[in-house]
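Exam prep: given the inputs below (a chain plus thymidine-5'-diphosphate), describe the expected output before reading on.
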Amino acid sequence: MTRGLFISFEGIDGAGKSTHIDRVAQRFREAGRAVVLTREPGGTPLSESLRELVLHQPMDALTEALLMFAARREHLVLVIEPALARGDVLLCDRFTDATFAYQGGGRAFDWQVLVQLERMVQIQPDGRLRQPDLTVWFDLDPHIAAQRLASARVPDKFESQPADFFAAVRAAYAKRQSEMPERIVRIDAAQSIEAVGSDVSRVVNEWLKRIGA
Ligand code: TYD
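Solution:
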């Protein structure tokens, strides 16, 4: 049976990942793979309701972290695990690295508590943690991201945070990447959209070759 593939996409708000996720989905579909395109927080009716709350209501930092992981648990059980079991390609716009980056970095919430929640929520029957097989991290200077976002839309709770919040989010992504360099691949998102797109293709292709898929 075809092996399921779990790829997540990360980066600060304004780093421009959405366009590239759609292109990756298209390429897998053209190669004949079933693709599930999903996002966090969200991806199930309950998780989308939780998304509305966490993106628009002020709340205590632990409450925020718990709601992110509650949404994730539901998403894992109802969408992610079944898709991987079917052998689909599951492309997720953000996953747990975003919690380490935004709650752990941006909010300076206790990193070790996040590690505990991650264990609790992502544990599999064999005791291993469910993680993406590959994470593409769109790394961008927060000042450039802020310029890109300025004209884009009405900001949500996170998008309206000051530049130093995003500097901390970016630093936490870098810390995660240094802890898991095999899984998390950095892409320079300051380049042109074409250059970023070709980097994304290269990273995905090299990884597929490495795992023999
Ligand atoms: P985002 O993925 O950027 O969606 P959109 O493109 O529709 O704005 O928005 C999700 C926001 O949620 C983003 O600001 C990051 C934040 N977030 C967290 O703070 N923690 C998390 O664990 C996740 C998954 C997202």
